[in-house]
């Protein structure tokens, strides 16, 4: 079930997104200037940001055609993102749809991480997109253990906020399997490729696709991650 408002502004091509071609240590090599011409259907342009982007002019971002943004709330349980509140309020004022994401640390307290997201949602509002669990660090644990701990986070957040969270991850993380308990969650896929993105089992398809980490968007100094939604 889709629990976020439909993103209805579609683009025929992402060719207007300007991104440098660069390597990335986690994903495929040489991300393209624009996403490859996969049969994605109508898509909506978005970004994801953290304190790394410093202060953002959200009015310029919105005017450039960006419709949604995922905004980092914390790295694990005890490192809040210092720009979260400014970004959260600024994106809303500019009319950019928002969802918060948390970089998951599977070796830290699962309860504390989930409760941080729950508390910030209740304090600052839920936004227009569900919260995201960013799974890209295994902490030295097997993928199946990471997935089990992520499931605990998901269940706690779902029960408290009555939403279905999104999983952000990348194909290589699950190259040996282990993610079966997460397969029911909507997928935000990170894959920088000159071909169509690879969807890792147990997922069948992606809902969001982060196709580059070298984007350039008016209102943001430096690079920013580029995303598509469908």
Structure write-up:
By secondary structure, this protein is an alpha/beta fold. The protein has a single domain (42-229), classed as Alpha-Beta Barrel (TIM Barrel), CATH 3.20.20.80. 22% of the residues lie in helices and 22% in strands. The protein is built from 4 helices and 10 strands; from the N terminus they run E-E-H-E-E-H-E-H-E-H-E-E-E-E. Strands 2-3-5-6-7-8-9-10 form an 8-stranded mixed β-barrel. Strand 3 and strand 4 form a beta hairpin. Helix 3 (110-124) packs parallel to helix 4 (143-161). The radius of gyration is 16 Å and the shape is globular.
What is the CATH topology?
A: TIM Barrel
Helix content, binned percent:
10-25%
Which stretches are poorly predicted, pLDDT < 50 over at least 5 residues? Answer: 1-33
CATH class category name:
Alpha Beta
Rg over CA atoms, rounded to whole Å, is 16 Å
- Average pLDDT, all residues: 88
Quickly count the helices.
Answer: 4
CATH superfamily: Glycosidases
Number of domains in the coordinates? Answer: 1
Which structural class do you get from the secondary structure elements?
Answer: alpha/beta
Describe the strand arrangement of the main beta sheet, using strand numbers.
2-3-5-6-7-8-9-10
The profile of the biggest β sheet is: 8 strands, mixed, barrel
Q: Write the element-wise H/E pattern from the N-terminal end onward.
A: EEHEEHEHEHEEEE
Q: Which overall shape is indicated by the principal axes computed on the Cα atoms?
A: globular
**What's the count of strands?**
10
CATH architecture: Alpha-Beta Barrel
N-to-C CA distance: 14 Å
- Beta-strand content: 15-25%
């Amino acid at each position: 079930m889709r629990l976020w408002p439909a993103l209805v502004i579609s683009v025929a091509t992402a060719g207007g997104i300007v991104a440098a071609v660069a390597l990335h240590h986690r994903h495929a090599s040489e991300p393209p200037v624009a996403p490859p011409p996969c049969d994605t259907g109508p898509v909506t342009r978005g970004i994801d940001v953290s304190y790394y982007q410093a202060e953002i002019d959200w009015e310029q971002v919105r005017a450039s055609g960006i419709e949604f943004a995922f905004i980092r709330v914390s790295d694990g349980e005890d490192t809040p993102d210092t720009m979260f509140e400014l970004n959260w309020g600024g994106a809303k004022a500019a009319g950019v749809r928002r969802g918060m994401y948390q970089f998951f640390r599977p070796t830290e307290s699962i309860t504390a991480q989930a409760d941080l997201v729950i508390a910030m949602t209740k304090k600052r509002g839920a936004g227009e997109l569900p919260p995201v669990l960013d799974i890209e660090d295994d902490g030295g644990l097997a993928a199946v253990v990471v997935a089990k701990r992520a499931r605990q986070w998901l269940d706690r957040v779902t029960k408290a906020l009555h939403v279905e969270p999104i999983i952000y991850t990348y194909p290589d993380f699950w190259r040996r399997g282990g993610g079966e308990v997460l397969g029911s969650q909507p997928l935000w896929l990170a894959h920088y490729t000159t071909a169509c993105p690879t969807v890792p089992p147990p997922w069948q398809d992606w809902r969001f696709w982060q196709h580059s980490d070298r984007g350039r968007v008016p209102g943001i100094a430096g690079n920013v991650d580029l995303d598509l939604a469908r």
